[in-house]
Amino acid sequence: MIIGVPKEIKNNENRVALTPAGVSELRKHGHTVYVQATAGEGSGFPDEEYVAAGATMLPTIEEVYGIAEMIMKVKEPIAVEYDLIRENQLLFTYFHFASSEELTRAMIAKGAVCLAYETVEKSDRSLPLLVPMSEVAGRMAVQEGAKYLEKPLKGRGILLGGVPGVKPARVLVLGGGIVGTQAAKMAAGLGAHVILMDISLARLRYLSDIMPENVDTIMSNEYNIREEIKHADLIIGAVLIPGAKAPHLITRDMLKLMRPGTVLVDVAVDQGGCIETCSPTTHENPTFIIDDVVHYCVANMPGAVPYTSTLALTNATLPYALQLANKGWQQACRDNAELKAGLNVVEGKVVYKGVADAFSLPLVPVAELLEQEETV
């Protein structure tokens, strides 16, 4: 198979979809890899390392899209890339379709095969291609939140861990999944008093067992959230419904319950956000203020630490990319239910329920589509 790796062009996105080591593995299996020049520089991988691993470098993004059968990316295509995508071309990347009707309709119109990292799902309901970036984002949420609590950045002027004789900051984490767990660990490690909320009592029991003493677990519901936000200095939204839009756990009217300088970090913003007043921002302009509350809503947080993020992402995606390249997407998805769950939009049809529901689009059963492909 011919694999193309374009340079990411989303604002301040420095990650790349494939490391030189990944190129080497694909080449060992007989595949051809084209990488856009300087695509890996932001992550610390110069062109020379890709060439040494067996890649062919192309100067423009148009050439990469034009030659590749499978495009490997990190973030969803943006508007200037839509016209570069060909019918039946396989795109393997993060899409988060449910948060963007424009992107969804563009991919339907192009007739591409869109296999989304974030909905590849194991039998135990875990999301193996979302986990590494969720781990990075959860840890970064505390790092960024601690920074924006500083007074010059319009925060409350509180040191997250406090000092002897002074109480530490109070951190509220909404969601006890991968993001929330990592955020709670980081905040607790820095000495903050952490409140971790989730709707699953079984999950709360588990978290209560593994978390340090400065982490309290509380059942998530509207009443408890309204009570806790009154006292929180940093609030981290870490809610995920795979492939679907995140629910608003904090609404606009709740901001008046918060103290001036409270910081909100919505890690779910690329799935529509779990804080109603959040809208996507960039690393260039990461925050805005509503009702004296600081909102940090960067949609590609791991892009700020691209070396770590690229290595973590490639470790997770490469085994799946090899299956797609070795077998073709149809056979790979027939053989592997995890990959089949990643199919969101296929040749103009929506095949993932969360995406169809988000925009009231017709849903085509993916199994039916794969059976049809087999007879072609």
Automatic annotation (TrEMBL):
It catalyses: L-alanine + NAD(+) + H2O = pyruvate + NH4(+) + NADH + H(+). GO terms for cellular component: plasma membrane. The keyword Nucleotidyltransferase does not apply. Keywords: NAD, Nucleotide-binding, Oxidoreductase. Substrate binds at residues 15, 75. Residues 4-137 form the Alanine dehydrogenase/pyridine nucleotide transhydrogenase N-terminal domain. Its EC number is 1.4.1.1. NAD(+) binds at residues 134, 198, 203, 220, 239-240, 267-270, 298-301. It holds the Pfam family AlaDh_PNT_N. GO terms for biological process: L-alanine catabolic process. The active site is at 96 (proton donor/acceptor), 270 (proton donor/acceptor). InterPro entries: Ala_DH, Ala_DH/PNT_CS2, AlaDH/PNT_CS1, AlaDH/PNT_N, AlaDH/PNT_NAD(H)-bd, NAD(P)-bd_dom_sf. GO terms for molecular function: alanine dehydrogenase activity; nucleotide binding. Residues 149-297 form the Alanine dehydrogenase/pyridine nucleotide transhydrogenase NAD(H)-binding domain. It comes from the Bacteria. Belongs to the AlaDH/PNT family. NCBIfam families: alaDH (TIGR00518). This is Alanine dehydrogenase. It comes from Rudanella paleaurantiibacter.
